[in-house]
Automatic annotation (TrEMBL):
NCBIfam families the record matches: cyt_tran_rel
Primary enzyme class: transferase
Family per record: Belongs to the cytidylyltransferase family.
Keyword Nucleotidyltransferase among UniProt keywords: yes
EC id: 2.7.7.14
Keyword list, A-Z: Coiled coil, Lipid biosynthesis, Lipid metabolism, Nucleotidyltransferase, Phospholipid biosynthesis, Phospholipid metabolism, Transferase
Species, as recorded: Limulus polyphemus
Coiled-coil features, chain-numbered ranges: 310-337
Protein's recorded name: ethanolamine-phosphate cytidylyltransferase
PANTHER family per the UniProt record, alphabetical: ETHANOLAMINE-PHOSPHATE CYTIDYLYLTRANSFERASE
Domain Cytidyltransferase-like, chain residue ranges per copy: 2-107, 176-269
Length: 339
């Protein structure tokens, strides 16, 4: 949405120190976040170490006409609006955030070990029906803007993220499949290398029950619809197969004219019948194992959260308290205007 408001999108990414000071400990470190933001298909330029409080001087330094942010309240360490200066100067625009998707939400799912965000049964493959509901009523993690909630998927949202381009005749088509849960730098590096193996990259995403079967616990942390949007936002990805079969079949390879199937260095779990899910591409001589160059996995991301559980719980409580104070102040302003 921010890119649609202009012609060139510059994204400022804060340092770990700035985020910790104003918001709480980040899940991904600054180097990981710099690379991940650069890989978003709509981003033209990244400013590393951008100040947490956006000023007119910052906009002018990088030749920006205005600043864009979501419609959630963002406060600094003192409890003041982070964007107060650009708002006063009328150089601020707002867009609607993707409902139900936030770092706080995902952290809550990890800490509470919930499964209610999974799409199961008749909803396993759905992307066209709006779903809503609270997956937790825990007051320590719920707030009006960043509390635990369920993502609202629609086909319109999927279309907004999709590239919509078909492969050209003669293109080498590469296929990869997996959960791609809590999209991180390991996934990004792997997709970058997979795309380098050909011209057109298709990513098959397994449904929530399938992922839960081979990963257990309350995985995936992100449901299918959230994972679809995460992967589609990556500039290396051309197409996504929603609810791809766990085993790469002959029909799938022939239908998409797949020339190469790649998999990372993570262990390959057998299918429900005990078979190798990559038997077909291996028999055709069209399978390749790739190393992402990163040792970060979804499990390690979760471990980061669990190991710093108290820090993140404190962050959530502090954030909710500041948001509530800001909300009450906003309501008082409206009452004054009405009277």
């Amino acid at each position: 949405m921010a890119k649609a408001m202009g012609d060139y999108l510059i994204v400022g990414v804060h340092t770990d120190a700035e985020i910790t000071k104003h918001k709480g400990p980040p899940v991904f470190n600054e180097e990981e976040r710099y690379k991940m933001v650069r890989a978003i298909k709509w981003v033209d330029e990244v400013v590393e170490g951008a100040p947490y409080i956006t000023t007119i001087e910052t906009l002018d330094k990088y030749g920006c006409d205005f600043c864009v942010h979501g419609d959630d309240i963002t406060l600094d360490a003192s409890g003041q609006d982070t964007y107060r200066y650009v708002k006063e100067a009328k150089r601020y625009k707002e867009c609607s955030r993707t409902a139900g998707v936030s770092t706080t939400d995902l952290v809550g799912r990890m800490l509470l070990l919930t499964k209610q965000h999974h799409s199961c049964g008749e909803r396993e493959y759905e992307v066209d029906k709006v779903q809503s509901g609270s997956i937790s009523k825990d007051p320590s993690t719920h707030s009006p803007w960043t509390g635990i909630s369920q993502f609202l998927p629609t086909t319109h949202k999927i279309i907004q993220f999709a590239e919509g381009k078909e492969p050209k005749p003669g293109d080498e088509i590469v296929y990869v499949a997996g959960a791609f849960d809590l999209f991180h730098i390991g996934h990004l590096n792997f997709l970058e290398k997979a795309k380098a193996e050909g011209d057109y990259l298709i990513v098959g995403l397994h449904t929530d029950p399938v992922v839960n079967h081979y990963k257990g616990c309350n995985y995936p942390i992100m449901n299918l619809h959230e994972r679809v949007l995460s992967v589609l936002s990556c500039k290396y990805v051309n197409e996504v197969v929603i609810g791809a079969p766990y085993s790469v079949t002959a029909d799938l390879m022939d239908h998409f004219r797949v020339g190469l199937v790649c998999h990372g260095k993570t262990p390959i779990m057998p299918d429900v019948d005990g078979s190798d899910p990559y038997t077909e591409p291996k028999s055709r001589g069209k399978f390749k194992s790739l190393h992402s160059g990163s040792d970060l996995t979804t499990q390690k991301v979760v471990e980061r959260i669990i190991n710093h559980r108290l820090d993140f719980e404190a962050r959530n409580k502090k954030k909710e308290k500041k948001e509530l104070a800001a909300y009450e102040a906003l309501m008082k302003q409206k009452e004054v205007r009405i009277s």
